[in-house]
Amino acid sequence: MSHATPSVTLVGAGPTGALLAILLRRRGFRVVVFEARPDPRRHPEESGRSINLALAARGIRALEQVEVLDALRSGLVRMRGRCVHERDGRTAMQPYGTRADEAIYSISRAALGRLLLDVATAEYGVDVRFEHRLETIDWRSGHAVIRDSAGHRIEVPMRPLIACDGAGSRVRRCLADTHRIDAREEELEHGYKELSIPASAGGAAALPREALHVWPRGDHMLIALPNDDGSFTATLFLRRRGSPSFESLADERAVAQFFDAGFPDVAPLMPRRAAEWRDRPVGFLGTVRAAPWHHRDQVVLVGDAAHAVVPFHGQGMNCCFEDCLALDGCIGAHRDWESRFKAFYAQRKPNADAIAAMSLENYEEMRAKVVDRRFQVQSALAHELERRLPDRFIPRYSMVMFHPEIPYRVAETRGRVQARLLAELTAHASSLADVDLDAAQRVVEAGLAPVAQDLSSVTNV
User: Fold this and answer.
1) How far is CA 241 from the centre of its chain?
2) Helix, strand, or coil here: 12?
3) Is 61 strand, coil or helix?
4) Which of 42, 214, 231, 299 is most exposed, with minimal Cβ within 10 Å?
5) Euclidean distance between CA atoms 6 and 27, whole angstroms
6) Quick check: bond before 244 cis, omega within 30?
7) C-beta neighbour count of 234 within 10 angstroms
8) Could you say which of 3.90.850.10, 3.30.1360.70, 3.50.50.60, 3.40.640.10 is the CATH number of the domain covering 7-46+109-187+286-362?
9) Per-residue pLDDT averaged across 310-336, rounded?
10) What is the DSSP string of 321-336?
């Protein structure tokens, strides 16, 4: 490419950085990406670290736009609902939506990252430099200081610099440490540890595959997502301190007793649990908040670097991919980088705040409410109201997961109204049969505007 071609520098070659690099190349920019880690296509994924993700409509839309979804389809595992496992061994399937196409998909983080990197480098000519770590930012000269694997110092002009370097973003910390933005990391009192449920020797799955499995236990929970080889990735979410906690489960015997007592149906399905518990770290759970996400026309934060969220709504990756589409749209709509960054922040910040709040609320729902009778009645009523009034009542979960045309902030606002209506309509109901559905429909028509009315005043993504 000609040196006259406008250039953009990215930090971070994970799925967000790779997707954004593809979008930028499609707009004609020369793109260089610096990544601290080795090339994941040549080195195995780090053990015990978020090895699969939940792909929903917002992420699907982004992958379709860069024409890579078809290449991923063989590795997607469809999940049409939650399979809830109670303490006494009973299970119940709770569908995510009312239509057959309303499902989410389990996908390998490593496979997704490798494919996006292949497309970015081979098809679009993106220059990705692995084992190049951002060290600091020299604000006086306007350069990012990069250190390669041999220790050589490289100064890169920020013209501009786009940070896709994740929840622990070094770029964000450089901005915050020099008081160019406000930023904080709000740690949840819970952590997580990943374990595995292998397939049988013949490849058969130990659990039904078309579900995200949940073992809700009040103040903690276990979940399991299916993989395309018949195995499941299980994640225990538990307090860091107290009892029970990761701190209190200090030896193999305590861990075995904890699983045998709390998860007796799944404990026998984890033959490698002792070794995995010993070898895999307790992961950090928290929310990143920053304001603003950019400094002048020099640097902008995108994805988890700007707004990492806890994983309990399955929207981390989907939200990051939606960021990429939004920034791409702002680049097309504005002529200079500062205007682009300001428009991106104004558009995405309210949505990021909304999904952060909903993700925290969904943790309580998953670990406790899904086995509550009142919650189940309200969910059944919500689905019935959606069937009757699809232009007016869409359950909040469905708005987030299956309706990318509805911004997160609209889903959150409408969700609050709907939660109040559902609570009122089920106050004296022990089952859906106890609810006067015609009366409920009239209440919703009087108390909730059509979705289109709320969408008319906002810009999506």
Assistant:
1) 25
2) coil
3) helix
4) 42
5) 10
6) yes
7) 23
8) 3.50.50.60
9) 97
10) HHHHHHHHHHHHH-SS
